[in-house]
Amino acid sequence: MHLQSLLLTHDTEVMRVLRPALEKLSIDLEICVEAEAGKRLLADRFDAVIVDCDDLQSGLQVLHGLRQTPGNKRSIAFALLNGTTTTTKAFQCGANFVLQKPISLLNASRCFTAALGLMERERRRYFRHPVEINVTVEFPDGTQRRVLASNISEGGMALCLEDPFPNHKSLTATFALPGERVAISAQAELAWTSDIHAGLRFLQLAMNSREQLESWLQQQMVKS
């Protein structure tokens, strides 16, 4: 699965330079030439958001508002500057990286290569893979419930319920990932619940269990 990026600029030279730099890293690029249209596109999630802060009208405001969007509050943000906005101001507005115009292919490639690990980490963090696995949930009073998980991520899982959960927020979830023999046991909390569904947030996993989960999810991301 390729990483996804959004570039907000009407500067054709920036487009010419950034496109090959991103393609080389297998990062798909979507370009938007207007700030207001860019705000609408940010209803979707992007792994990287690149904003022309000085030469695109309201560009700096888009960068500042990025952290308020549900899907992109943790996206890796790049600010393109051209002598008006200071680097300090760009970082204060939420930028993770700053590129000064004129942008060369070499500098762009170095910047995105340096950011690649952060983008991949965030992708793994929010990536949810659909599953159908049995989960044994144990509550603090010792009672257990066997339920079905419908998806899983590094941070938690969604469960399908036949009956509402007992009124316990903390619990232990034990499960085996598809194709894996070693079971994972996670200390978790009930993040949300309805009559037939619940969401668990993982609080603590043993190091080997976390590594197993991260490795398995990475394999699923590559396949998808």
What is the H level of CATH, i.e. the homologous superfamily of the largest domain?
Response regulator
Give the end-to-end Cα distance, rounded to a whole number of Å: 6 Å
CATH topology of the largest domain: Rossmann fold
Let me know the largest β-sheet: 6 strands, antiparallel, barrel
- Helicity range of the residues? 25-40%
Number of domains: 2
β-strand number: 11
- The order of strands across the largest sheet is 6-7-8-11-10-9
- What is the tally of helical segments? 6
What portion of the residues fall into strands of 2 or more residues?
Answer: 25-35%
Structural class: alpha/beta
* Mean pLDDT value: 93
Q: Architecture of the largest domain, according to CATH?
A: 3-Layer(aba) Sandwich
* SSE order, one letter for each helix or strand: EHEHEHEHEHEEEEEEH
What are the segments in which pLDDT stays under 50 over at least 5 consecutive residues?
Answer: none
CATH class of the largest domain: Alpha Beta
Radius of gyration: 21 Å
Overall, the morphology is elongated
